[in-house]
Amino acid sequence: HKAAAAEARRIVKDFDVRTPSIDVPVGNLSGGNQQKLIVGRELAGTTKVLFVAQPTRGLDVGSIEFIHKQIIAMRDAGTAVFLVSAELDEIMSLSDRIGVLYRGRIVGEFDGATATREELGYLMATGAPPEPDEIAAPPHEEAHA
Q1: Does the model's pTM come out above 0.85?
Q2: What is the DSSP string of 60-90?
Q3: Is residue 132 within 8 Å of residue 138, measured between CB atoms?
Q4: Hey, which of 33-37, 43-47, 51-55, 139-143 has the most confident mean pLDDT?
Q5: In whole angstroms, how far apart are CA 22 and each of 9, 18, 45, 76, 100?
Q6: Which residue blocks in 77-142 are alpha helix, DSSP H?
Q7: What span, in angstroms and rounded, lies between the C-alpha atoms of 105 and 89?
Q8: Most buried of 27, 43, 48, 112, CB within 10 angstroms?
Q9: What is the mean pLDDT of residues 81-95?
Q10: Are 54 and 74 in contact (CB under 8 A)?
C-alpha cells in the first residue's frame, strides 16, 4: 500500500492532477484530471510498445507539454509508440512516421520530418494522393517597389 500511495502522490504531483487527496475515487475527479491520472499511470511503467489515443485531449497547455515530453522520452528509451490523435499538430510534432487512414484503410505513409499539412490534409479528405498541382503553393511575398 505504501508503494501504491507513493506512486499516486508522484503522478498527482508530476501531472498536476487536481484532487483534494489521493484517496478520492478517480470517478469523482473531473474528466481532465481522470485523463492526466490515467496517462501518468500508463507512462510510469516500462513497456516495449505504447498505444496512446488522444493522449492530450481536453488538457491544459502545461499538461500537454509534459505528456509530449514523456512520450518522446519513452520513444528515445526504445519504446515503440503508436499515436492516434485528431490533432494534426500533435501528430506532426511527435511522429517519426505518419500513416493516414481513410475509410478504415491506410492510404498513405509519410516521414514525420518532411510531411506537410497540405499533403496530409488532402489525403485525409480524399483518400487519394494529390496531383502535384492540387496542393496550393505557399503565398509569395510580393516585392514592394
Answers
A1: no
A2: -HHHHHHHHHHHHHHHHTT-EEEEE-S-HHH
A3: no
A4: 51-55
A5: 7, 10, 19, 31, 40
A6: 88-94, 117-126
A7: 22
A8: 43
A9: 91
A10: no
